[in-house]
Design brief:
single chain, 148 residues, alpha+beta, 2,3-Dihydroxybiphenyl 1,2-Dioxygenase, domain 1, nine-stranded mixed β-sheet, 3 helices, 32% strand, globular
Length: 148
């Protein structure tokens, strides 16, 4: 039996997968495959001004998928779609404190896109980890809104 090795820099930071984000050209066109064909349950789309995107959250049980559509030509998703045509954009990890997670990762030499927490969809607080530090995968840290 092999022992699971968790990289030191991420130990105690990631509490589990928060969501997988999929870049799409159109929420209206893409959502049918997820809602009708797969039976996922969708929330209402939300505009995230900081990223200039519209986000549609879909649930398969407790698992969350986010479809992300550009809301303007200068959205980071627009650039991603131009390069790839769409598909998986990033993995998002649930953390209890984004600021503490940023500090922890930076102290272990992990390169960050966001040096400070910022607002995300549905009242979350987020930060992005640079894909050059994660084997080419864009990762997001997500802190759910605090109760009360």
């Amino acid at each position: 039996m092999s022992t699971l090795h968790v990289p030191h820099a991420i130990q105690g930071v990631a509490q589990g997968l928060h969501h997988v984000a999929i870049a799409v050209k159109s929420l209206a066109e893409a959502r049918g495959a997820y809602e009708l064909a797969l039976g996922l349950v969708a929330t209402e789309p939300e505009f995230v001004p900081d990223q200039r995107v519209n986000v549609l959250v879909l649930y398969a049980g407790a698992q969350r998928i986010e479809l992300v559509e550009p809301a303007s030509p200068d959205s980071p998703i627009t650039k991603f779609l131009e390069k790839t045509g769409g598909g998986i954009h990033h993995l998002a990890w649930k953390v209890s404190d984004v600021a503490a997670a940023i500090a922890h990762l930076k102290s272990h030499g992990v390169r960050m896109i966001d040096e400070a927490p910022r607002p995300g969809a549905h009242g979350t607080t987020i930060a992005f980890v640079h894909p050059k530090s994660t084997g080419g995968v864009l990762m997001e840290l997500v802190q759910e809104p605090r109760a009360g």
